[in-house]
C-alpha cells in the first residue's frame, strides 16, 4: 500500500521525549505484583509479605503511592527510615521496586497551610481533604511541594539496586481533572495568550461573534464555569486541552527531576486508558518511557471481556506497539461500583492472560494486601482479609506459576492489519451540550465497532487520524467528529493509496475550533466518501428505522434487512454507490450505507447506528475489500490473539470465555 506522506509526525508514543527512552525495567521475567502499602501494617507483617510475595512469584511492587505524610510528616522534614527498611527487605527477597512519588495524596498539614490549593469544580464547589487528589494543578505551592519531594526521593533512591521503575503520582486526572479556582483562571488566560497571540485570533477561533461574547482583554477570559446557559463550545474544548496539558506539565516536571538522577531508570505514570476522558493519552504517551495502565472490569457486564480487550489494544497502541505494563487490575471485586460482583472462578487469571496476549509484559494488581481500614477495605487484593486459605490466594499463586512459564513471550509484538481511530478531542467536543442528539456518545460508538471486529477475531490497533495509516489494510472511524483539513487529507491519501476506510456518522463535522465544515455534511470527508448530506435527521428515543439492501447492488451479496437507531441522514450519492437504503423513517428512500471507490481503495459510509448483526455484515464486506480476514465461523466466545517474537516465534493465546 502506498505511503501517506506529509502526515503530522509524532502523534502517539513513537517519538521519544528525550534522546532515547529508557527501556523496560530490569526484571527477570514478566513483571508480576501490585501496589504495596506497607505503611498500613505493623512492620512484623512486612516480613510475612515478602515471604508470601516469593511464594506467589511476585517480582515487582509499586511502593509509596500515597505515602506523602509518612515521608514528610512536617513541612520540609523528611523521614525515610521506614522506606529504607522496606526497600531493603524487598531487595533481600529478590523483589524489585516501582517507586512512586506520593503527590496524589497531599497531607492534611499541607491543605491546612494552603487552603487555596483545594480544587474548585465547574459548579463552584471547593473540594475537601480526608480523601486523595485534593489539589489544584496550577497552584504554585502544590507544584513546588511535589517537585521537592520528588527530588528528595530521587536523590535517595535512584541508585538503589531494587528501584527499577519510577511511578510518578497516581492516575493523573482521576477524581479531579480540571480546576476553576482563580489560579487556574490565570493559567488558562496565559495558555490562551500563548496559543492565539492576538485577541483577534482568539475571538475568531472561539467564534465569539455569537451571543456577543467578544473578549477585549486577556484577563476577561474566565474558565468555562457553569453559566445561565450553555458556554462557548470552542472555549470549553480549549479548556479541556489546557487541563490535559496542565496535568501533563506536572508529570513532566517530576519525570525530569527523577531522570536527572539516573536516566537509566524508566519512568511511567499509570493511565486509565478507556476511562480517562479528560487526559489526551496520545499526547501523554509521548512523554513516558513505558505505557502503564489501570483497568477494572464492569461487574456483571456480559461484554466486560471485550471491554478489557479494547482497553488493552488501546494501551498497546498508545505504546506504539511496544510492550506495556498492566499496573493495576483486581483479583476480584472492586469497592466502587454499585454492586461489587466478585469475579467468577477462573476469570481473574483469564483477565490477566488477556492483557498479556494483547501486549502487556507485566501483570500487576491493586493491591497486594487488602486494607483493614479506609474506603477501599472491601476492594479485593492479592492477599485477601481471609489470608492465604482462600480462592483468590490460590489463584494468585497459580498465576505466578503460569507467568513464569510464559517468560518467552516477553517483548513479543501483536500484529494488526486493522485500526480503529480514537481521538480524545472528538470525545470532548461531541459530548458538549446542545448537540443534535444526546444519544451520540463517543465510547458507545467506539465499542460498537470494536465489538464487531472482536467477535470476528480481527485484532485491531487504535490509531489517530493524524498518523501514517498506510500499514493498515482496514481503518474504522467510529466517531472522529473533530477533523482538521490536513487530517481529512491524510484519510483521503490513505484511501487513494489502497486503504479501506469505514466511517460512521457525525465524523468529520467540525474543525479544531468546533466550527462546522460548510457545504454539506460530513464536511471534511464528503469527497473521500463520495456523499453529501444537507440535514441531520437524528431519531427519537427508542425509534428505529428499517434498512435493506439497495436495489442496484448487482445481487452478488446476500440480502440484508436490518435496522438503525439514534441517527439517520438523507444521504445523496456524489460518486459513491448505495449499499443499504432506508426503508422508512425520516430518510426513507435515501442510501443508509454507501461505498465509494477512490483511487486504489474504497471508503464506506454508515449513516445510522446499525443493529449489531447488520454492522457486522457491513464490516465483513469492508474487510473483504481490504483483504482482512473476518472470521464469523469460530465462536465469538473464543478469544484468539497472537504475539510474535523478534526471532519469528509465534505465541498463540486462546481464551475461552464460556469457561467459569
Ligand atoms: C485505581 C487507583 C487505586 C485504587 C483502585 C481501586 O483507580 O489507582 O489507588 O483506588 O483504583 O480500584
Overview of the molecule:
This protein is an alpha/beta fold. It folds into two domains: 26-412, Glycosidases (TIM Barrel, Alpha-Beta Barrel); 418-626, Rossmann fold. It contains 17 helices and 24 strands. The strands form four sheets. A ten-stranded mixed sheet has the order 12-11-13-14-21-20-19-16-17-22, sandwiched between helices. It has a nine-stranded parallel sheet with strand order 5-4-3-2-1-9-8-7-6, with helices on one face. Helix 6 packs across helix 7 (199-206). The model is unreliable at 1-16 (pLDDT under 50). The protein binds beta-D-galactopyranose.
* CATH second-level architecture of the largest domain: Alpha-Beta Barrel
Count the E strands.
Answer: 24
**Overall domain count:** 2
Highest CATH level, the class of the largest domain: Alpha Beta
Radius of gyration: 26 Å
Strand order of the largest sheet: 12-11-13-14-21-20-19-16-17-22
Bound molecules: beta-D-galactopyranose
Structural class: alpha/beta
Features:
nine-stranded parallel sheet; Rossmann fold; binds beta-D-galactopyranose; TIM Barrel
Quick recap:
This protein is 31% helix and 16% strand. With 660 residues, the chain is an alpha/beta fold.
Topology of this protein?
Layout: E1 31-36, H1 43-56, E2 60-63, H2 68-71, H3 81-92, E3 96-100, H4 108-113, H5 140-157, E4 163-167, H6 182-196, H7 199-206, H8 233-261, E5 267-268, E6 270-271, H9 281-285, E7 292-294, H10 304-318, E8 324-328, H11 347-357, E9 360-365, H12 391-405, E10 413-414, E11 418-421, H13 424-430, H14 442-455, E12 460-463, E13 474-477, H15 485-496, E14 500-504, H16 526-529, E15 531-532, E16 544-549, E17 561-565, E18 572-573, E19 577-582, E20 591-598, E21 601-606, E22 609-610, H17 612-626, E23 638-644, E24 650-656
Parallel strand pairs: 1-2, 1-9, 2-3, 3-4, 4-5, 6-7, 7-8, 8-9, 11-12, 11-13, 13-14, 14-21
Antiparallel strand pairs: 10-23, 15-18, 16-17, 16-19, 17-22, 19-20, 20-21, 23-24
Helix pairs in contact: 5-8, 6-7, 10-14, 14-17
The protein binds beta-D-galactopyranose.
